């Protein structure tokens, strides 16, 4: 993982209260549809691309969150493939991944970076 502290730009997206605990919302961030998930148990937010490469629809924010092998995942609401929320990697097909954006909570605000690991859709 690359850590650049000088050049990173955090984009303010919304308040933590705007998020659904253990679920996702979709945000349009500088033209990118981003699915943002809030997992209170981990006290963490995760941001991945909203586009589901299997169903070709912007639906991942509506997927069910869960935990597989200790990793937070979301299941596509269409064909149920699971995506690792930390990496964007599909669990059923390792050759497929969705963009995964750094995300954080700062002073009650949710912020992400658009420098995705993986290809932005
Ligand atoms: S930005 Fe979420 S559906 Fe269009």
TrEMBL record:
GO biological process: nitrate assimilation
The entry's keywords: 2Fe-2S, Iron, Iron-sulfur, Metal-binding, Nitrate assimilation, Oxidoreductase
EC assignment: 1.7.1.15
InterPro entries documented for this protein: NirD, Rieske-like_NirD, Rieske_2Fe-2S, Rieske_2Fe-2S_sf
Pfam families: Rieske_2
Residue span(s) of domain Rieske: 11-112
GO MF term (any one): 2 iron, 2 sulfur cluster binding
UniProt xrefs under NCBIfam families: nirD_assim_sml
Official protein name in the record: Nitrite reductase (NADH) small subunit
Source species of the chain: Methylomarinovum tepidoasis
């Amino acid at each position: 993982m690359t850590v650049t502290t000088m050049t990173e730009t955090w984009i303010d997206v919304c308040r933590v209260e705007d998020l659904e605990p253990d679920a996702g919302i979709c945000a349009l961030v500088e033209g990118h549809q981003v699915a943002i998930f809030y997992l209170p148990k981990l006290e963490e937010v995760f941001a991945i691309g909203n586009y589901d490469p299997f169903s070709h629809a912007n639906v991942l924010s509506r997927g069910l969150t869960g935990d597989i092998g200790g990793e937070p995942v979301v299941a596509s609401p269409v064909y149920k493939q699971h995506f690792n929320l930390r990496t964007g990697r599909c669990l059923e097909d390792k050759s497929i991944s969705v963009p995964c954006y750094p995300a954080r909570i700062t002073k009650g605000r949710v912020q992400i970076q658009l420098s995705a690991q993986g290809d932005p859709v």
